[in-house]
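Exercise 7.
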Amino acid sequence: MSTDPLILAIDDEPAILRLLKLELEDQGFTVVTAQNGEDALAVAQTNRPDLVLLDVLMPDISGLEVMRRLREQSDAPIVMVTAKDTDKDKVVGLDMGADDYVTKPFNPDELAARIRAVLRRGQGPASARVIAHGTLEIDLDSRLVRRDGEQVTLTRTEWLLLQVLAANAGRVMTNPELLSKVWGAEYRDDVQYLRVWVSRLRHKLEVNPSEPAIIKTMPGIGYMLAAGDEEAAAEESPATDAQQAPTTDDELLAPA
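Solution. The predicted structure, written as C-alpha cells, is:
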C-alpha cells in the first residue's frame, strides 16, 4: 500500500528492467515495466506513471518515436536511459521532449537522484500544496486535514487515498489508477474495494456524504476531488433531479 511515485521503465533487455525495478523500488519508487514500444504505450495509458524511463534503441518502435507518442497522451516527465552517449544524441532526445538523459552503464543512486530532481521540478509552487474546500483544508505537506478549524482523524489508508486525489485536484482519476497508486498494481481491478474506502472518506469529509461536493464519482470511470470553484458553482446552481447522475458509492453499489 503506497503512494510512492510510479515509474514506467521501458527497455528491451530483461536484465536491465530487473535491475531498474530492484534498485528503484529499494529507493522508494513503485516500478512497472515494458520491453517494447507498443506494450509501453499501453502500460502508460493504463497506469499513468509519474515518470517514464525510456531506452532509445527499441526493437519494434524507436525510443524517440515512443516518446513522441507518449507526449500525445501524457505530460509525465521522460528520462532517456541509453547507451547512445554522444552530444548529438543527447541534443536530439532533449529537443524531442526528454526531461533528462542518463547513459548506460548508470549508477543506480545517481539515476534515483535524477528522477527525484525531475519530479520536484514538476511539483509547482508550495502554495498549491494546501487545498481548500469551504471550511475543509487538506495540507499535503503537513499531512493534516481540518474541517471548521478542527483536525480530522484519518486512518493511513484514508490519508493515502485522499493524498492522491488532492494532489490531482480537478482531474479525473480512473479506478485502476487510484487502486494502483494507493494499494499496488495487483489491486488495479478491485473497484469494489475502492468504493468502500471512498465511502469511508466521504463520511469524514463531506457535509452531506449522500450528496458529495468534494469527492465526486465519475460513473464507470473513477473519482475526482473537485476544485474549489467547482464546489462553489455547484452550491450556487444545484442540478435538477433529471440532471443528476449517481454520485455516491451506495448508489453505485446498488444492484442494476
